[in-house]
Amino acid sequence: MFGLLLAGCATTSPPKPDYTIFRQFHPRSILVLPPIGEGSYNYLSTATRPLAELGYYVFPVAPVDQFLKDNGMPTRVDMHQAPLARLAELTGADAVLFLTLNQYGSRYQLDKFSTTVSVQGRLVDTRSGLTLWEGSGAAYEDSSTESEYDSEKSILGNILLRPPLWPISSKLRG
Amino acid sequence: MQVERMEADYKKACARNQQVPPGFHAHLGHLYSQLGRLDDARKQFETEKTEFPESAVFVDQLIARLNKHERAAK
Question: What residue segments make up the domains of chain B, in order of their start?
């Protein structure tokens, strides 16, 4: 059992999407870096599938992880701090999705605790360095009935990485 | 084993005339290369490039690295 929160939304109306910058840069390929943050180490990104369904070419995370490690970025933080030009040179990506995951927990009874998984994301165009999209979301759950991985999947797949927040790629739109 | 699961998924997709998602072939190629099945790896990488031309820069790097390791091992 968990609830989903979208940051910045106090009411039920969703944020109005502004695709101006997206349309201007129309990225076709997105490099999703392994997420950084507490509690994210075990899971490579679950962002690839929702983005692929929107028509973006998404690089496979496991080979990318190994490849970047072999090319001077031994840790995820190194990958997140690498110059965009370097990431573009190595992969040919039009844009990079930076994800930060954090988990907060508190025990409120002897055997019960609640955890909150929060995700922040930012999509950056590799040539200009401009931010094409940013967003965040969180899920909270009680007593670990669902894993943090499910929450991450849920936040990314159900909330952050889909219309209306994300446009369908120019490739699908034709 | 993940390789077997992916191979089965690929057969299913073919039977349904469906394309596998971006990165699938590259990921399978990555697994093959880790298992030392270099020719199989190369085939998967080439397929990724054919299916998804946006992957060309990345896949070419993977192929180059594969070839380099193969030469070094000889």
Answer: 2-73
Task: Give the separation between CA A56 and CA A167, rounded to whole angstroms.
Answer: 10
Tokens found for residue A8? 């910045």
Q: To probe the interface with A, which of B3, B19, B42, B55 has the most A CB atoms within 10 Å?
A: B55
- B21 neighbors A49 (Cβ within 8 angstroms): yes
- Angstrom distance (rounded) from CA B47 to CA B51: 6
User: pLDDT tens string for chain A (174 positions)?
Assistant: 445 555 443 445 555 667 888 888 989 999 999 889 876 555 667 788 899 999 999 999 999 999 999 999 999 999 999 999 999 999 999 999 999 988 777 767 677 777 788 889 999 999 999 999 999 988 877 765 556 677 777 888 887 888 878 888 887 776
Which B-chain residues 20-49 have CB contacts (< 8 A) with chain A?
Answer: 21-24, 26-27, 29-30
Q: What 3-state DSSP class applies to A139?
A: strand
For this complex, say whether ipTM is above 0.85.
yes
- Map tokens 């469906």 to a residue: B18
Cβ neighbours for B38, distance < 8 A, ≥ 6 positions apart: B32, B66, B69, B70
Q: What is the 3-state secondary structure (H, E, C) of chain B?
A: CHHHHHHHHHHHHHHCCCCCCCCHHHHHHHHHHHCCCHHHHHHHHHHHHHHCHHHHHHHHHHHHHHHHHHHHHC
